[in-house]
Design goal:
Blueprint: H1 9-15, H2 19-36, H3 46-50, H4 66-77, H5 99-111, H6 122-138, E1 146-150, H7 153-171, H8 176-179, E2 188-192, H9 197-205, E3 214-216, E4 236-241, H10 253-263, E5 266-270, E6 295-299, E7 311-315, H11 318-324, H12 354-389, E8 393-394, E9 402-406, H13 410-423, E10 429-433, E11 436-442, H14 450-466
Parallel strand pairs: 2-3, 2-4, 4-5, 5-6
Antiparallel strand pairs: 1-7, 6-7, 8-9, 9-11, 10-11
Helix pairs in contact: 2-4, 5-12, 6-12, 7-9, 7-11, 12-14, 13-14
Bound molecules: pyridoxal-5'-phosphate (PLP).
Length: about 475
């Protein structure tokens, strides 16, 4: 007797599910959330947070229908989200989500493309190619610069520094990819004392040692001190910053980059949110000179308001990057005439991530990107002005989208931060700046209006007076 082949009853039901009804309901639900984001408390209420305990159930024994899952996510999850997509979230450096990408996202998800190679996803490869070309133009980078699409700046920085490390050592006749670092020549890594912590983590992961580097002092705005940069040579890896994570300040690329290039150093620019200044004719002066660098890293999910995870690594010489990301395998099928995405990143399987960036950039156009960056910066300046006239001190020059504000002393500022975070009206975080506690305001969402800022500044002042 022939045995009946195994068929899972659960999968059989799932195969019979039509996407239409589910996705229509999902769209209604997502739209309700998106349109209501501004009316939400910015940080969820204690009751909403308590509602998260509904998720603490045992792993279900059997299946649950998709719409039940959607319903539960919306009922218990949505109220406990932080309204980062609304207009009054100023924490860390985040960013909203523009309608173009939000609208296209369900389609991209339905595509379910693994974009490791052209052979796996021609459309994934095409959208990466297009975004790469658009980025040269928008950010005024050298044509031919290779772009890799990754989860965020953390990964982008690590990949760029890996390419830098291997290239600098290869120039000294050492193949670090094959041999590792032990017994090889030394690199001289030069960073600003204000470098982002992800830079230090990357150095640590790459065997360069986060403490084994030369840390150059920064000026009062957090810019690397040009006069304190040590002599550089062809074994130097210099890491600069476009957009200090506290003050928003930009290193002086115009003075530093020609000098570093002359010396044969590799220059990396961490421009997670600041690189986009290059896309604005009014702010481009901030990034001038950075086009001389060897590699850059940036995020779409901050200033540009793409969905997460949208990081981009950029490397002037594609062959250097490709060599560092080197992978082989009998089953790998690369093409001659098309882009194979995995050559440019440390990931192999991944979603068609560049699609979000493509949708966002096409939704804005060159003018739209410039206006987005300009408006974020104008709103930051407005916020700073309101706070200053309400008696706050502003601790940085507001050159970009970051404002560091302080109320009286450390203790008062700390109490005020806690009160603001509890208020539900807005959200911002604290930081330490030149030994003082400050409120760190990042104006990063296209949703923020001047009315939002007026309301938030008034609320901050009211809370400060009632402390
Ligand atoms: C946010 C940020 C990073 C890290 O980027 P992720 O996308 O969060 O990984 C690195 N450098 C700077 C300056 C940043 O603002």
């Amino acid at each position: 007797m022939q045995k009946k082949p195994y068929v899972s009853p659960i999968l059989e039901t799932l195969r019979q599910t039509s996407a239409e009804e589910n996705l229509a309901e999902a769209a209604r639900c997502a739209a309700r959330y998106a349109d209501g984001a501004d009316a939400r408390r910015v940080f969820p209420s204690p009751e909403s947070l308590a509602g998260l305990s509904a998720f603490d159930e045992p792993l279900p024994d059997g299946p649950r229908p998709p719409l039940k899952i959607l319903e539960m996510a919306d009922r218990c999850g949505s109220p406990a989200t932080v309204a980062q997509s609304g207009g009054r979230y100023f924490g860390f450096v985040c960013g909203g989500i523009l309608p173009s990408a939000l609208c296209a996202r369900p389609l991209f998800d339905a595509w379910d493309q693994n974009t490791a190679m052209y052979a796996m996803s021609p459309v994934g490869a095409k959208l990466e190619e297009v975004c790469q070309r658009w980025l040269w133009e928008l950010l005024e980078l050298p044509e031919g610069t290779a772009a890799g699409f990754v989860s965020g700046s953390s990964t982008a920085i690590t990949a760029c520094l890996l390419a830098a490390r291997n290239e600098l050592l290869a120039r000294q006749g050492w193949d670090a990819g094959a041999n590792g670092l032990a017994g090889g020549p030394k690199l001289h890594v030069v960073v600003s004392e204000e470098a982002h912590s992800t830079v230090y983590r990357a150095l640590s992961a790459l065997g360069l040692g986060y403490a084994a580097v030369t840390r150059v002092p920064a000026d009062e705005q957090g810019r690397i001190r040009v006069d304190r940069i040590p002599p550089m040579d062809a074994s130097t890896l210099l890491i600069l910053q476009a957009g200090n994570v506290n003050s928003g300040a930009f290193d002086d690329f115009n003075s530093i980059c020609p000098m570093a290039r002359e010396a044969g150093a590799w220059i990396h620019v961490d421009g997670a949110f600041g690189l986009w200044a290059a896309a604005s004719p009014r702010l481009r002066h901030l990034t001038q000179g950075m086009e001389l660098a060897d590699s850059w890293s940036t995020d779409g999910h901050k200033t540009l308001n793409t969905p997460y995870d949208c990081g981009v690594l950029l490397c002037r010489r594609p062959e250097t990057l490709v060599r560092a990301m080197h992978m082989t395998g009998g089953y790998i099928q690369l093409t001659e005439d098309h882009r194979d995405s995995m050559l440019y990143t440390m990931e192999m399987s991944r979603r068609a991530r560049a699609a979000d960036l493509w949708a966002t950039l096409s939704g804005l156009g060159r003018e739209g990107v410039a206006q987005l960056v300009d408006e974020l910066c104008a709103k930051a300046a407005h916020f700073a002005e309101l706070l200053r006239s309400a008696g706050f001190s502003i601790e940085n020059e507001v050159v970009y989208n970051q404002v560091l504000a302080r109320w009286r002393d450390d203790a008062a500022t700390e109490r005020l931060i806690a009160a603001i975070q509890d208020s539900g009206v807005l959200w911002l975080g604290g930081s330490r700046w030149h030994g003082k506690t400050v409120m760190r305001i990042s104006v990063c969402s296209y949703r923020t209006t001047y009315a939002d800022i007026d309301r938030c500044a008034a609320e901050m002042h009211r809370l400060a007076e009632t402390l």
